[in-house]
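hey can u check if this looks right to u? its 512 residues, i copy pasted from the old doc so theres a chance i mangled smth
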Amino acid sequence: MVLVLDTISKSFPGVRALSNASLTLAKGEIHALMGENGAGKSTLIKIITGVHKPDSGHFSLDGKDISLSSPRDAIALGITAVHQERNLIPRFSVAENIMLERLPTKNGLVDFVSANAQARQHLQMIGLDIDPSTEIRRLSVAQMQMVEIAKALSHEAKVLLLDEPTASITAAETEILFRLVRQLRDRGTAILFVSHKLEEVLALCDRVTVLRDGETTLRGAPMAGMTRHSLIEAMIGRAERPAIARTGAPDSGQPKMELRGFSTGAGHRNIDFKLRKGEILGLYGLVGAGRTELARALIGMDKVKAGELLIDGKPAKIRSVEDAIKRFRIGYVSEDRKHEGVILAHPIRSNIAITVWNRIAGTLGLLTAASERAVAEPLSKRLEIRTPSLEQLVGNLSGGNQQKVSLAKWLAVNVDVLIIDEPTVGIDIKAKAYFHELINDLADKGMSILLISSDMPEMVALADRILVMHEFEILHEHVNDRKYDNASRAIMGAIHKHQQSGHGSAMATASH
């Protein structure tokens, strides 16, 4: 075995993150590491990459015991990682990012000709044909990810850790990534593949290790004998619950929100749709389709160029997010929860109460922790936010609990329309099922929901109608009959027909 972690334990103040966890990684294999948020995956990853030291246990590389004091120690031994959070400098070139801290010099100055030549070799190793002098910020998300892999492999990697590598790329780009990962495996690289996506893991990986509550429940099991259901049971300790069907139905009266000839500065032209009270309206599209940009325009974050937005049949001009909340009772759960959804360095109570600060401030405009707690506590209980205290910083929560906090702030202000962008990206199966039930419940109680998702099963499970967006246009409306095959055929057929007519490619590279 290339990498062995045996009976690893690690504790933090008040929390036992790992308890006798084990993992073995062989040369020339793709090994899945799975588990719910809070299962201990992040801690184990940080031990492997030198961020944390284990309290106890055995850690070896190529049969020799190792002790890592920093990520630099791990890299020096050939243990490299591509994390979910980008680790590239946007205004530096591809070559500068790949060769960072190892830039060649000539006469005391950086030798950019040599740096570009070396970077080009590393890019060619993974089949990436881009100019190494290009600034990172000019690349697509998928290209950035490939650059990170090239950078990791440039350190003569024996072990490559990929953390949720497909979270922000299209299906077509995922296939390209998988081809590369298989090629690296065939060259002898040991690959640890961390993902919540069961179908991807089943299709790609050779073996799997599962963590639950800091312990190993499945150790290096051959993927050939695994099913979706057996993986779920290993992760959550029980079988997957079936989706709960909605009990309500959309109101047939006047639309709650309506767009007529709506055009934006981002590039949308003549968008028309109606969202009714108690309806979940799906907006499906691949990365680059323009869904997030439309959402941002609807809540006053981005420019509207032409057309009408009507709320309850009356024209609405939304000038800011504050305007959307106060005058029109529209909320937005952003896809980018770490930068737009929550304030990581603030406690849970402040994050939940932020939308009602004006209402709960005292006579002198002062906020108190007690007034914030009064708002946050019932919502924290309702959404089952797992935390010992509302004083805990949101940055210390799991992804699923951060998403619950992001949603709770809109429930605090009691919005009528809620736009939810990729609600379950990067969260575990149990949290995903919880969010599906919650979204259904909110709609059943009369909330109008615009659901943006690139997860087809999620869209089929939740939406009453599905709008298909591609290249900033709405191509098709599908009345959802909850049958996956019907929805998939209609949606992908509309996109394919659009592409065949010469309007563009599915390999869109802008942020959706």
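The longest strand covers residues 15-25.
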